[in-house]
């Protein structure tokens, strides 16, 4: 997890928009989808369009029996732990500089809100994105 955080910070310092695109795709993968957004989509789409695109992505996972963060087995617990650890380490590492640049946290919070407000039938996205702040507090 430390390497992921270090790599994200290095990428963010070089190109914030590209790094944020990677972070957004990380959110999507945690939900169990292999779909990806491009940097152009992240930069140019409004929240409603994002919600529609995310809603279109969900059916590819609905045929499977469980979603990664919901799994109660050892792999699910490990994923939740590493997901929380990522957020905790990221916030710890950026709390004195990057967090105040008004790009990363503003956009992250916007994305978390969009994901959490998604259709309740698409709970994996809402669950993964409302779970992220738990890593901030641990």
Let me know the number of strands: 0
Q: Which class do the helix and strand fractions yield?
A: mainly alpha
Please give the count of helices.
Answer: 8
* Rounded average pLDDT: 76
**Rg of Cα set:** 15 Å
Q: Spans with pLDDT under 50 lasting ≥5 residues? A: 60-65
Written account of the structure:
71% of the residues lie in helices and 0% in strands. It has 138 residues and is mostly helical. Helix 4 packs across helix 7 (104-116). It is globular, with a radius of gyration of 15 Å.
What are the SSEs and their pairings?
Layout (H helix, E strand, L loop, with lengths): L1 H13 L1 H15 L8 H6 L2 H11 L1 H4 L11 H21 L9 H13 L6 H15 L1
In short:
With 138 residues, the chain is mostly helical. The chain has helices at 2-14, 16-30, 39-44, 47-57, 59-62, 74-94, 104-116, 123-137.
Supply the key terms.
138 residues, globular
